[in-house]
Amino acid sequence: MAQTATTSARAPLLTSVTGAYRFLRRWPVFPVFILVLLIVTGTSAQWIAPHDPLRGSLMSSLNPPSWYDEGSTKNILGADKVGRDILSRVIYGARISLMVAAVSLTSGMIVGTAIGLLSGYIGGIVDDAIMRVVDVWLGLPFLLVALVITVVLGQSLVTLLGVLALLTWAGFVRNVRGEVL
């Protein structure tokens, strides 16, 4: 009798844990949370960041993170060798990451969708030619192409955006062409 009472008391707990596990497995809760956190942090960096990310203080140079014994709550993630707050730099760095992802994916999507629509709609020799170009492009080692472009054009944000846009268009071409066909 006592054993059934204990088992029946555990049953709602097991079903709630199992239900939560199934929910977390079925829906991308953690990735969406991280993405929303990155977007909110990046777009409101000037209000969230505790310090100026470019201004350093030599007095707080190489401060350890706050969870160390020598660390302080002034620099939660610590400070670099120039004395700049690492947390502020990470928060402001989210802006660059968001911009690079948005520009490269948007440009790749626009170019890839247009070429994929053209390839799937016209068909024939045009489709074959476009798809062979896509096959060759996907066969190239991207890291080598990116290094050559960076050496030739130099290191800049525009070069990075261009290289990433070159990376993303081919996948969109294949998907859109398949849907059109």
Describe the protein in words.
The chain has 181 residues and is mainly α. Helix content is 73%, strand content 0%. The protein has 7 helices and no strands. The protein is flat and about 70 Å long. The relative contact order is 0.09. The model has no long low-confidence stretch (mean pLDDT 87).
Q: Could you list the spans in which at least 5 consecutive residues all have pLDDT below 50?
A: none
What series of H and E elements makes up the topology? HHHHHHH
Classify the beta-strand content into a percent band: under 5%
Main pleated-sheet profile: none
Per DSSP, the total helix count is 7
**Global shape:** flat
The average pLDDT score comes to 87
Give the % helix. over 70%
Task: Report how far apart the termini are.
Answer: 66 Å
Strands, total number: 0
Radius of gyration: 25 Å
Structural class: mainly alpha
Describe the SSE topology.
Blueprint: H1 2-26, H2 29-43, H3 45-48, H4 86-122, H5 124-139, H6 142-153, H7 157-180
Helix pairs in contact: 2-4, 4-5, 4-7, 5-7, 6-7
